[in-house]
Amino acid sequence: MILLRSSIDDEGVKWPQQIPTSPRRIETEVILHARLVRRYRALYAEAQDILAASEERNAALSLSDLAFDTITEARRAYESYTCGDIQDAKAAAALARTHAAKVV
Q: Which pTM value belongs to this model?
């Protein structure tokens, strides 16, 4: 065995501190290393997919909140109008339109 300091390659994989010298052992180590690299890449890709799904979910929740706010303001505008409070109805309708524009 040749002793080397452990190093991290460009892909962030830490190499062992001892490098074997026999051809068979080198081949085995390379195969094991390649499997680890593939496994870590697959885990990284899975983590990216989870992150993307999480971001989509957060965006959907944000849209849901905006839609709820739109409905709430539209309801307030209707109730204010039916009670005769035209100014509040106009203000609530303007807010409802603002929220609706953000949803679309």
A: 0.48
CA geometry: angle 32, 37, 39, nearest 5 deg = 95
Domain limits at 84? Answer: 2-103
Phi, psi angle pair for 2, to nearest 5°: -100, 130
Query: Residue 13: what residue type?
Result: V
Range in 2-6, 15-19, 94-98 the model is least confident about? 2-6
Alpha carbon of 11 to those of 7, 33, 103: distances in Å? Answer: 11, 12, 41
**Does the pLDDT of residue 5 top 60, yes or no?**
no
Both tokens assigned to 65: 């909140």
Give the count of domains, the chain.
Answer: 1
